[in-house]
Amino acid sequence: MRKLTEQDLLWIHSRLKSLHIRYTEVYEEIFDHYCTTLENSTEIVSPSIIAKLNDTFSWSVVKGMDKELEKNVSKQIWVAQLDFLKFWNRGFKGLLASIIGFALLAIAIFTISASELILVFLVIILITTAGVFFMKRDALSFRLSHKTVSISSATIIKRVGILNTIFMWIYAMPSVLTRGEIHSNALFVWATAIVTIFSVMYSISLLAIASDLPAQRTAI
Length: 220
Known about the structure:
Largest sheet: none
Oligomer: single chain
Strand content: under 5%
Number of domains: 2
Distance between the termini: 25 Å
Helix content: over 70%
Structural class: mainly alpha
């Protein structure tokens, strides 16, 4: 077993950067595989070994790994959000606090007019977006060069987009298309109130999951 030189490590990083790997977890997995393979080789790295590694982790294979990890982590976060909202598993005090809080929230929202509910929902979006972006800012990038990020952080940030979609299609579009006349429709008022309650619950669970996830380091 040989020890990799600084030049070997730089070459591996250069190769992985050329693949534009999206997630840190995939980057580290492939990096470890390259290192292990090269360390276990009994000879100086030959073109055939490098070619085999590059073929094993081609661009299409790496993109498939990114997508597979995306699906798995997305499911895990959904499960974590649902588990967080199972207030009946939090003991008597947790159950009582949740019921009282939910009741007060429902009363407050159902007494607010539809036009004001839109403002309430905008506040929910702003608070959730600010909170998630602050906690998972390691997945944000404002530079032109490629940046490998944590899958959990990226997935959490994407979930904020669901709130924006709900706002657009359930609140904004009907209001614009009817020029605000739909605000006097009882069905629309009840629907917006119910959706707002679930949106609050969704936002709370998203912020809770985001705060529980450990900070991830970015790949070199």
